[in-house]
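This entry is set out below.
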Amino acid sequence: MSLTNPNKVLHLSGLNGIRAIAALAVVISHTTQSLSEFNLNPFIFGTNQDGFPKGLDLAGFGVSMFFSLSGFLITYLLLLEKESQEINVKNFYIRRILRIHPLYFSYLAICLAIIFFFNLQFSAISLVYYVFFAANISFIIGIPLPLLAHYWSLGVEEQFYIFYPWIVKKIKSLSTFLILATVFLIIVKLIARVIDIKYGIPSIYLALQVTRFQCMLIGAVGAIYYYEQSKWFLKYSTNIFVQLFSWFCVLLLLLNSFHLFSVLDQEIISIITLFIIMGQITKTNRIINLDFEAFDFIGKISYGIYVIHPVIVFTYIKVLPDLKLPLVFKYLLVYLVILVTTIFVAYISYQYFEKWFLSMKYKYSSVKTSATKHSQELLLDTQSSS
């Protein structure tokens, strides 16, 4: 699909809605995991086999949705850039830095101040991982920094995008290469799982379960087929039954009941996310229209929501635990104030901090996009985010 007018602003319908769902899923899930800190029953969703409270699976699946969407969007934009000129990898890196780094390091500094003020335990080695965008390694080996465990997904994305633009730029049979790479990673993951079950060596499987490049590759392959206007892909990805099944799976996620094939559930969710993306941007058999103002707003600030929310949860843990309210109202209050405050702070961050850096991206972007159909800002929004 060509962007024939280089001055045209590209808007892909509904993508901010998907970002909104994923970001809110992460916040709700992490709030649920902290219920005991509010003197609330952490077992409201049941108990795991290990005896620990069963939380919501939304957080992990929400990140997989971000990954799939990120792989789709960035691949599509790179292909559009490739139409009219050679991909400028340096400019790609600059765009990533302007989008990700300012908030990433600002929030890291705030968390370090909180860690020292409240004398929270942390590993100095972990800090090195975080500075060099390798928080996923710290997460895998079990020494994440307090309030920063969720940075693992940002580490995964930044590592992926170190080499990915070179692949798009240099590989001629791109779809074939990405499909083979995806299949290879999935096979290695399945083998690692067998080794884990048979010999009790979980480290390789855990590393692949966390560093799930294949989820981004799934979105990337879909972007190539969409760009090429592949008839079979458009036909089957937007089929009414495929769309219904995809939204049914999202409903199961919301009910904490999604489980098809546990080893590959994250990859399955990535494929389902791709189908939802296709339904939204083609507007074919679109079961639910995500392209409306409230979701546009939340999706636009979703990176801030994802990054900032643990500090909001931590703050309310200091304020609300001893609040005397009927249990039902206290549950509602905890979820509501965390969500509302997170959205408010993320908006302030976007409006008065991130936006300044985003405005600098114009001269490094060959393809201009509008974050929302209601906005006239020319932003090449290459975020994602867990």
Summary: Confidence is low (pLDDT under 50) at residues 1-6, 374-386. DSSP finds 15 helices and no strands in the chain. The first helix runs from residue 15 to 33.
